Amino acid sequence: MPSFEHHGASIYYEEFGQGFPVLTFAPAGLQSVIDVWRGGSAPVNPTTEFAATFRVIAMDQRNAGGQSRAPITAQDGWHTYAADHIALLDHLRIDRCHLYGQCIGGSFIMSLLKAQPQRIASAVLAQPIGRVGAMAPGRSARFDAWAGTLKDHPEATKQVLDAFHQNLYGPGFLYSVDRAFVSSCRTPCLVLAGNDEAHPFPISEETAKLLPNAEFIREWKEGAPLAAAKVRIKEFLSKHTLR
Q1: What is the CATH number of the domain that holds 193?
Q2: Strands 9-16 and 3-6
Q3: How many domains does the chain have?
Q4: What is the pLDDT of residues 40-95, one digit of tens each?
Q5: With the CA atoms of 37, 3, 95 and 93 taken in that order, what torsion angle do they form, in degrees rounded to the nearest 10?
Q6: d(CA 33, CA 61)
Q7: What is the pTM of this model?
Q8: What share of the chain has pLDDT > 90, as a percent?
Q9: 93-139 per-position pLDDT tens digit
Q10: Distances (CA, A) of 105 to 1, 18, 129, 157, 179
Q11: Are 230 and 49 in contact (CB under 8 A)?
């Protein structure tokens, strides 16, 4: 099984197809693992949808319930995940790629675009997460559900997890980046709208408006709009492959 070690973390990944690389980030919040793509809950499964044309790379995020493991500290945040993503690209000797991410994948994408924009040819953000309004008190139910899966992490004390939660969700908007960065990001992006509490439509809409080089798809999750969106995503990725 393909995995590699870096800075105390063991990261598991899989590859599908051949061609220009597309690094993907599955939905499900901090429980983002490859099996979410395979489970049928995501409208687009890039590991099958794009593999005929592209080299698709999927990964289990650290401590997400899959096969990637790492210690948990109070200093962890979006930069910690970005370091995993950069290390994976380095491990695979990939100098340039596309990104495709759903849900939390949108925040992963923006964090990586901030860290190494020269490495990303284009990005597709499907129903990105974000906060509308003030941060609710306490930890979110989704975060606590993830925390409940941490069976072999005695270092993950309440104080450590409280700090980690604040590092992730305290900043607001797209969480990993602010509006000023989004407005400055020149990477071509395709944004597929969210339409529920976890993926608010206003977040998707504002993200698409702020990005200087963005396209926006409002309807895409089922039926004819989904079929059309799949075609458009492939065309978008192909258009930016040679740039």
Answers
A1: 3.40.50.1820
A2: antiparallel
A3: 1
A4: 999 999 999 999 999 999 999 999 999 999 999 999 999 999 999 999 999 999 99
A5: -140
A6: 6
A7: 0.97
A8: 97
A9: 999 999 999 999 999 999 999 999 999 999 999 999 999 999 999 99
A10: 23, 22, 8, 26, 17
A11: yes
Task: Read off the tokens for 82.
Answer: 């970005």
- The predicted structure's pLDDT at residue 243: 54
Tokens 């409280």 -> residue: 162
Q: Look up residue 89 and give its amino acid.
A: L
Paired tokens of 153: 């992490």
> The domain containing residue 58 runs over which residues?
3-239
Euclidean distance between CA atoms 167 and 156, whole angstroms: 15
**Phi, psi of 57, rounded to the nearest 5 degrees:** -115, 125
Tokens 């990637």 belong to 68
Q: Give how far the C-alpha of residue 5 lies from the chain's centroid of Cα atoms, to the nearest Å.
A: 21
Please name the residue that has the structure tokens 């596309």: 98
